[in-house]
Amino acid sequence: MLTTIFSITLALSVASGNDNEEQWQARLAKATQQETRNPWAAAVTYCYAARLGITEAQYRLAMLYAFGFGVPEDRVAAASLLSIAAEQGHQEAQKMLETIRITGHRLPRCVEADVEPVMSKLPIQNAKMNANQQVVANIISKVATWHGVDPSFALSIAKVESGLNSSAVSPKSAMGVMQLIPETAARFNVKDVFNTSQNVKGGVRYLRWLLDRYQGNIALVAASYNAGEGKVDHYRGIPPYPETQQYVKKVLQLYPFSVHQTAADRDRDINVFPEPAKSKKTKVYR
To answer: Which residues form the Transglycosylase SLT domain (predicted)?
Structure first.
């Protein structure tokens, strides 16, 4: 109910304002480019546009609050904004609501009043990552946590797959930061493989599915992510493909654990394919 009231209020802002959505497209495009360099400045633009009822700005601002980019992480505010954008037909907002559940209704103060958003503390920068890679890494960490996957493991997979490059394309048509092939993208409802949050969500959901299938066995999960679970099941272990064996080795160098390091998986039996018991030969006396 509250969300509907918020939606009506913001929609009326559009109708009564001098600005319209078409005039905002260029400004929002510029703000989107700012997200990697100065996400708070982008948030300032999104807040103003969101107050005017610009749907895309509501979605973009929600994503900043969801991941804590430029503004303090606030999943309630993010879900509230996503709900408003979704009610106005924004498809990406609708999909994100599957991950960021609505647990309450609270709009950011900068959407309710003409004030600047609170600036978040600057994240600790990894000297080995550029600005774009840092943003991608933060998205992976958040989405992995939401789906019960150790962020360090998801990051290890992404680093081996694409080097945290959202535009990567392999000779085998694997695409995006998590290198999803078309079949896997369709399986996990990823419509735009070059949309970082969509791609990461699809890849992380696949990892979670594999972790459940192989009881947290990291080597088997990595091998399946590379060669497919069908090949791992067929060979009852890591397939004898040099590419897959090298891939598993690289992942284990970055994530040196035999079992997935979360409370839910750490104590699981990773002996997925036990050796069949050998039958004893019975001596026949003649």
So the answer is: 141-237
